[in-house]
């Protein structure tokens, strides 16, 4: 599901003729995932894992249906919001069911099978979306319809596993209203509004200018209100003090956000470059993401064994991720020839970037399991996923703002989408022949796309800060600091600040 939208986003932008709303197509789902991630943890601890997983699948299917049937930007974004609400539930459900159903060495084997299935879905989603969209521009909707049988098949399998099983009601004896209060719907809404206002400010900063500061101040106000209400109502902290009080985990959150944001921005950049500068070819854009996916798959498989042999998580995984992603993104900026789009020139750079992402995305979870008490690890893993979603939503908004500001320097706003597909400018009469954008306009558009890649390079380089700032500890055995020792002193209280 997550690899479909980057491939068909240029087609949707042209279909709805709205470059302004491009940011919300992606950011809406990522920001909603971030805000709802930890609440799904409460759902799985207070309800049956299988039943909660079924609800998440239903939400995911509903989001796909709304997205596929949308006739304008508004319903499409609404579908993405519903999808973003469901994605953390599906991810958390896989982990919860795995923890409840498998024991011993079976858990490792099933985890490996899940990673392989995830990689295959990553590869198949982008290629299938490209094949469907290339048949006809209006067929991008089938990219979401084709996901529904997969959801239905999974739903039936989980439902069959529940058939005839006695439910253990004693584990879930809490009243319904207590469960609703634990989910904190008001707090979720306030947090979502805060995130949406911040991203809207980033977007409008490139189009309007003065609204940027107003929206950021409003975002901060809603965030303060969110923290205030949670403290006054004595809610359990979303981020326990045992997690937020550790420098290593704070650095892991930042690293996870950088890796997630860089990956999403690279996926969308590949698709827009191939389909706009090189011509509307969704399948070719899908094939262009394969080196990235292959690199992620190659590096993620042996990462655990190599890190275990080397004895620490930083020297190999995190620093290698920074080096590979920075070099890969940097090489992508020099292989841009608009007159002859050759994906062969990108294989090396995208493969390097994928290798770096594969190294980097798993390391924060390894960090959490190494430096935290076992009781804090589930919440920490959920927080890391939320940080990745937040980084994806915010950095995509930054990349789109950079693209828009550069493009508007030489192309009128209403003609950006038209020039993406070689269409006549807005207001051109039918009897006037359109020979395409001028050389200056074409170069302006190329420069806008290239500047977006510079954002990826910058984010990849920034990731070196959390990589070297965290405490380097050995995996297993004695928890011995290698380079930067962790802060000494008593452990922070478990019920501390609400972050």
UniProtKB/TrEMBL annotation:
<feature type="transmembrane region" description="Helical">
    <location>
        <begin position="346"/>
        <end position="368"/>
    </location>
</feature>
<dbReference type="InterPro" id="IPR011701">
    <property type="entry name" value="MFS"/>
</dbReference>
<feature type="transmembrane region" description="Helical">
    <location>
        <begin position="52"/>
        <end position="71"/>
    </location>
</feature>
<feature type="transmembrane region" description="Helical">
    <location>
        <begin position="185"/>
        <end position="205"/>
    </location>
</feature>
<feature type="transmembrane region" description="Helical">
    <location>
        <begin position="77"/>
        <end position="101"/>
    </location>
</feature>
<feature type="transmembrane region" description="Helical">
    <location>
        <begin position="144"/>
        <end position="164"/>
    </location>
</feature>
<keyword id="KW-0812">Transmembrane</keyword>
<feature type="transmembrane region" description="Helical">
    <location>
        <begin position="282"/>
        <end position="304"/>
    </location>
</feature>
<keyword id="KW-1133">Transmembrane helix</keyword>
<feature type="domain" description="Major facilitator superfamily (MFS) profile">
    <location>
        <begin position="1"/>
        <end position="475"/>
    </location>
</feature>
<feature type="transmembrane region" description="Helical">
    <location>
        <begin position="211"/>
        <end position="229"/>
    </location>
</feature>
<dbReference type="InterPro" id="IPR036259">
    <property type="entry name" value="MFS_trans_sf"/>
</dbReference>
<dbReference type="Pfam" id="PF07690">
    <property type="entry name" value="MFS_1"/>
</dbReference>
<feature type="transmembrane region" description="Helical">
    <location>
        <begin position="113"/>
        <end position="132"/>
    </location>
</feature>
<dbReference type="InterPro" id="IPR020846">
    <property type="entry name" value="MFS_dom"/>
</dbReference>
<dbReference type="GO" id="GO:0022857">
    <property type="term" value="F:transmembrane transporter activity"/>
</dbReference>
<keyword id="KW-0472">Membrane</keyword>
<feature type="transmembrane region" description="Helical">
    <location>
        <begin position="452"/>
        <end position="472"/>
    </location>
</feature>
<feature type="transmembrane region" description="Helical">
    <location>
        <begin position="250"/>
        <end position="270"/>
    </location>
</feature>
<feature type="transmembrane region" description="Helical">
    <location>
        <begin position="316"/>
        <end position="334"/>
    </location>
</feature>
<dbReference type="GO" id="GO:0005886">
    <property type="term" value="C:plasma membrane"/>
</dbReference>
<protein>
    <submittedName>
        <fullName>Major facilitator superfamily domain-containing protein</fullName>
    </submittedName>
</protein>
């Amino acid at each position: 599901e997550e690899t479909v939208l980057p491939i068909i986003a240029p087609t949707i932008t042209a279909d709805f003729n709205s470059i302004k709303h491009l940011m919300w197509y992606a950011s809406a789902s990522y920001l909603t995932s971030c805000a709802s991630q930890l609440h799904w943890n409460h759902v799985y601890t207070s309800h049956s894992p299988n039943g909660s997983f079924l609800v998440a699948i239903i939400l995911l299917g509903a989001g796909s249906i709304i997205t596929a049937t949308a006739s304008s930007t508004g319903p499409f974004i609404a579908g993405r919001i519903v999808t973003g609400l469901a994605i953390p539930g599906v991810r958390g459900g896989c982990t919860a069911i795995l923890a409840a159903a498998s024991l011993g060495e079976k858990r490792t084997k099933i985890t490996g099978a899940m990673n392989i299935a995830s990689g295959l879905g990553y590869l198949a989603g982008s290629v299938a979306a490209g094949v469907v969209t290339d048949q006809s521009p209006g067929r991008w909707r089938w990219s979401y319809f084709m996901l529904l049988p997969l959801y239905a098949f999974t739903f039936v399998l989980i439902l069959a596993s529940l058939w005839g099983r006695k439910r253990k009601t004693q584990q879930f004896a809490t009243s319904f209203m207590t469960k609703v209060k634990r989910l904190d719907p008001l707090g979720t809404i306030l947090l979502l509004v805060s995130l949406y206002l911040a991203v809207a400010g980033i977007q409008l900063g490139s189009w309007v200018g003065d609204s940027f500061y107003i929206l950021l101040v409003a975002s901060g106000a809603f965030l303060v209100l969110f923290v205030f209400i949670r403290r006054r109502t004595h809610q359990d902290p979303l981020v326990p003090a045992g997690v937020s009080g550790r420098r290593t985990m704070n650095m892991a959150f930042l690293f996870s956000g950088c890796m997630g944001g860089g990956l999403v921005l690279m996926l969308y950049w590949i698709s827009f470059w191939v389909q706009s500068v090189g011509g509307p070819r969704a399948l070719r854009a899908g094939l262009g993401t394969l080196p990235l996916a292959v690199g992620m798959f190659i590096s993620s498989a042996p990462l655990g064994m190599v890190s275990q042999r080397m004895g620490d998580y930083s020297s190999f995984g995190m620093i290698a991720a920074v080096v590979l992603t920075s070099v890969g993104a940097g090489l992508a900026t020099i292989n841009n020839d608009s007159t002859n789009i050759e994906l062969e020139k990108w294989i090396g750079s995208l493969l390097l970037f994928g290798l770096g992402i594969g190294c980097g995305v798993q390391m924060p979870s390894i960090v959490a399991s190494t430096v935290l008490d076992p009781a804090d690890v589930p919440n920490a893993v959920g927080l890391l996923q939320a940080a990745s979603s937040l980084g994806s939503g915010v950095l995509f908004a930054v990349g789109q703002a950079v693209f828009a500001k550069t493009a508007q320097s030489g192309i009128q706003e209403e003609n950006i989408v038209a020039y993406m597909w070689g269409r006549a400018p807005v207001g051109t009469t039918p009897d006037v022949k359109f020979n395409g954008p001028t050389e200056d306009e074409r170069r302006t558009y190329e420069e806008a796309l290239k500047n977006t890649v510079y954002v990826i390079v910058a984010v990849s380089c920034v990731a070196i800060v959390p990589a070297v700032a965290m405490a380097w500890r050995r995996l297993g055995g004695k928890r011995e600091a290698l380079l930067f020792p962790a802060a000494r002193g008593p452990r922070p209280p478990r019920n501390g600040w609400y972050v």
